[in-house]
Amino acid sequence: MKRPFLFLFVMALLCSASHFSLANDGYNLWLQYQKIESPTLLPEYQKQAGHIFIPGKNATSDVIEKELRTALEAMLEIAPQFTTTPKQETTLFIGTREQLPAFTLKAINIPWEKLGTEGFSIQSINQNSQKALIITGNSDVALLYGTFEFLKLLQTQQDISTVDLTSIPKTNIRVLNHWDNPDRTVERGYAGASIWDWHRLPGHVKPQYVDYARANASIGINGTVLTNVNANAQVLTPYFLKKVATLADTFRPYGIKVYLTARFSAPIEIGGLDTADPLHPEVQKWWTEKVNEIYEYVPDFGGFLVKADSEGQPGPQNYDRTQAEGANMLAKALQPHEGIVMWRAFVYSNETPDDRAKQAYNEFKPLDGKFEDNVLVQVKNGPIDFQPREPFHPLFGAMPETPLMMEFQITQEYLGQGTHLVFLGSLFEEVLDTDTYAKGPGSTVAKVVEGSLDQHALSGMAGVSNIGTDRNWTGHLFGQANWYAFGRLAWNPDESAADIAKEWLKMTFSNDEKFIRKGKSIMLQSHEAAVNYMTPLGLHHIMGWSHHYGPGPWVTDKHRDDWTSTYYHQASEDGIGFDRTASGSNALSQYAPEVQQQYENLETCPEKYLLWFHHLPWNYEMKSGHSLWDEIALHYQKGVHQTEQMITDWKSIKTHVDDQRYQQVLDFLQIQHHEAKWWRDACLLYFQQFSQMPLPEGVTQPEFSLDHYRQYTPLFVPGI
Ligand code: BDP
């Protein structure tokens, strides 16, 4: 190499190694493992983590060792020594009850029974006048979870000298749902192509699969549904199963099981039968054999996720059978292998003229208690479809005999897709904390989902993934926070969104206090901001046709009414909003009496749900004293202001973020601000046709005419 080039090469190396490197593409997610700079914490951590006892010798303990090596070298600049027999200098012990040396067991106090198979404890003890730290649990995977927690303590710069913590997951199935198709397109995916490179599997195992498993394990996710709910039967053929087996082998050391979506008509499409009737013995036999075959490829296969009788998908209704009959057929085939069925409640009909918000309840409520024990009914958080804000789904609390699994959407189909910063921790928390009153006050959605309200052995949470081939995994850097928040809330639905935001910021960017304060403020107001500039005061489903990007309150006259905007906002000269009280669709009757009373009464209905449940005149007087029209307009304006504030806040913490990630977030915030104005102007001009009222003071006059917005059609929007 010639001299000037050598110089440049060395400079480039130095830059990439320095703390504030110019290039950080976000690939390492929240596992950044930045060097600990604190002069007090660094020596303490170095002392604690220098000599590690880890007796297990298997794929998971290898993973633990590797993670510790990577993390400690980066954070503490030490090369930790590992030993399988305790030594005098050992200060960190990682083992199950059977593996830990007797003297450590005497010093700790662990609720072994309660830990189950996945819970873990981390305790600090005094040993030979030095501190020792014990990470323990009842399984290798529990030790892995404990190790990630330990690393998090360092990443977030906690005092570990007196640590005594126990963490037990409150749900047992914590899965990502990938809406990934075999051709690598991702339905509602905004971060590139599918990470599953089916064509090159099983021959090539991308390093990204391993990092995917690491990231998920670090937040307690223990399952992945590899394929789209709009399912392709081919994924159940040996051609694909070989590929699935390779992914399962890769994920196994990280405690992650694979699941597949089962297309209900698979017996016809790939089985050569002429029916898929769940009560037909040939169909039952076909599924039993298919399931047995899958377990030959994947001995710990998790089970199936099924979308049936919804948006054109085949299902038991095709044979006049119930959802329970459909689910139970698959459940029985899976029972000998301890597999489960996650049967989606997202069922609504083209032909039923009833309010779409009511249909899942009408279909499923009568089936309570009729499902096999290994079936979970998977319910979206709200009764329509992942809108910026929805009240909780009325099925939560209404099916005490059936374990209900939460389905959140991490990918931001209706929340700015790949360009808007919207921290979904706040949305998830709002839903989980809501009281269903199913068994009196305190019967929160979280308790239903945890299974604690009705003592269910099975419980779970699913998140529709936002992951793709983009280098930073999620397109928007802050999309990573939504993946993170999902995992943390699936583990513990009672966790606070603010705490999650804080720890994510620390692990991903910096522990600096000012940075955290501003970063948190951006994140915690971002969901409300999006609701304000998209669908304030209970408005919903008014986005662009089909691709769902941007505003489309004018969408009308399509082949089904309940896919149009005019069906949902009902705007006319006399007012706006969907009447779901007794004088309207009466969807409110599906909730417990306490909820009904609260929401039907205009005095007590939270204004954030007002137009979800009520149709009101434009001059209706709001609590603020403003007319409804003014209040709507002011909310849109506020949303735009909030996006401006987010930009100002982000700029103020520039010095704490590396250039690459800083710039990407800034660019996206600017797109978001621009689009917030687009939403405001398009919606206000459209609704103004009916209200016939001027924009109140403080609301900016729209830049263009309504026609301009109506005619603007975004092209090639991803993720359709
Ligand atoms: C809607 C999406 C559609 C999904 C459907 C579902 O627009 O792409 O297939 O939900 O959840 O939100 O099945």
UniProtKB/TrEMBL annotation:
Residue intervals of the Glycosyl hydrolase family 67 catalytic domain: 154-473
Q: Which residues form the Glycosyl hydrolase family 67 C-terminal domain?
A: 474-699
Query: What is the protein's quaternary organization?
Result: Homodimer.
Any GO CC annotation of this UniProt entry: extracellular region
Similarity comment text for this entry: Belongs to the glycosyl hydrolase 67 family.
Taking every annotated instance into account, which residue ranges of this chain make up the domain Alpha glucuronidase N-terminal?
29-150
Q: For this UniProt entry, which residues form the secretion signal?
A: 1-23
Q: Which catalytic residues are annotated?
A: E311 (proton donor), D385 (proton acceptor), E413 (proton acceptor)
Which segments of the protein form a coiled coil according to its record? none
Q: Which GO terms describe its biological process?
A: glucuronoxylan catabolic process
Name used for this protein in its record: Xylan alpha-1,2-glucuronidase
Its EC number(s)? 3.2.1.131
Q: Which reaction does it catalyse?
A: Hydrolysis of (1->2)-alpha-D-(4-O-methyl)glucuronosyl links in the main chain of hardwood xylans
The UniProt keywords, alphabetically, are:
Carbohydrate metabolism, Glycosidase, Hydrolase, Polysaccharide degradation, Signal, Xylan degradation
Q: Name one GO molecular function term.
A: xylan alpha-1,2-glucuronosidase activity
Q: What species was this sequence derived from?
A: Echinicola vietnamensis (strain DSM 17526 / LMG 23754 / KMM 6221)
Enzyme class comes to hydrolase
